[in-house]
User: Fold this.
Amino acid sequence: MSKTSKAARSSRAGVKTAGPATGKKKKKWDFRDIATWGPEKHEPGAVIPESGTADQYETGGWRTERPIRDIEKCNDCMICYWGCPDSSIVVKDGKMVGIDLNHCKGCGICAEVCPRDAIEMENEIQARKEEEV
Ligand code: SF4
Ligand code: SF4
Assistant:
C-alpha cells in the first residue's frame, strides 16, 4: 500500500459505515469530536459532515460575487427561487423580497436563469465598499 493510501485510510479513522441503499456500504461520518480534528482527519476539500446542515453554516462568506436585483425589472416569476441551490431567494406572500446574503454563495445561477435580466452579479468587495459609504 502506498504512503498516500495509508494516509487516506488513517484519515478516515473516525468514519463508520451505515446500511447500504445500493448494495454498497455507505460511508457515514463520525464527527462528534470534529472540534479537535487537525488537517489529517479531514477529507481533501470541503467537509460537509451530514446532509441537511446548510442552515447551520453562514456560507455567504465564500462569495466573490453578489447578486443584485433590480426591483423595477423583477416580476416575481420565482424562476430564480427554483434555480438557487442554496435556498437563498427570500420569498414572502408569493413575492421575491430579497436575497439571503448570509447563505448565498454567489454562484450566479439566479442571474443566469432570470428571464428579465433583473439580477446582476457584482464584485463582492466592491459591493461591500458601496455599503460602507
Ligand atoms: S427570476 Fe428574475 S424576474 Fe423572476 S423573481 Fe427572480 S429576479 Fe424576479
Ligand atoms: S448567486 Fe447563487 S446562491 Fe446566491 S441567490 Fe443566486 S442562485 Fe442563490
Residues 1-21 have pLDDT under 50 and may be disordered. The chain has two domains: 3-51, 56-132. Residues 69, 74-80, 96, 114, 116, 118-119 surround iron/sulfur cluster (ligand 1) (CB under 6 Å). The radius of gyration is 20 Å.
